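Give me C-alpha cells for this 158-residue protein.
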Amino acid sequence: MILFLPLLMAGGIASLKEKYFLSLVGGVMANVPQAKFGIAFCEASGACLIRADGNDESLKKLAVENAMSIGAGHSFIIFMENCYPINVLNAIKNVPEVCRIYCATANPTKVLVVEGDVEGKRGRAIIGVIDGYMPKGIESEDDIKERKEFLRKIGYKR
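Here you go.
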C-alpha cells in the first residue's frame, strides 16, 4: 500500500531525511545558534520509539506529530524557524549517519510512504516527496534579478 501523507506545517520550514539520530542536534545548533528547531526520529528496531529533541517545544511537538504520521524507520524530520535550510543543510549532510535528504522546504509537502510486513510486523519506508507545485513557466530577466537578490539577502550569494 502506498500512502500520500501531508506534512503538518506551522509556518516554519520542514526538512525530511533518513538517518540515525546521533550528533544531529549539535550540528544544527552549532551552525545556526539563533535557530529555533524541533527534531523527531523514528527508531526502526528495539523499542521502536519516536525520539525528540530541540530548543522549541512547539516545533518539537510538530516534528513528533509528523514523525508519528510518517512512521518510517530511521527517518527524521526537523522543523526550523529563524533560519533557512541552506544555513544548516551542509552540516546535516556531513553527519555520517545521514543517508538521504528528501526535502528542505517551506512549501506544502506530501510524503509518499509504502507500508508492508517485515518478519510479520508492520514496517514503513519513505519512497519520495511531493514538494510544492509544478512549474508555471520559465523565469524572466526580472525573475532572475529577484532570485539573485534573495540569495544575497540570505547570505548564499555575493
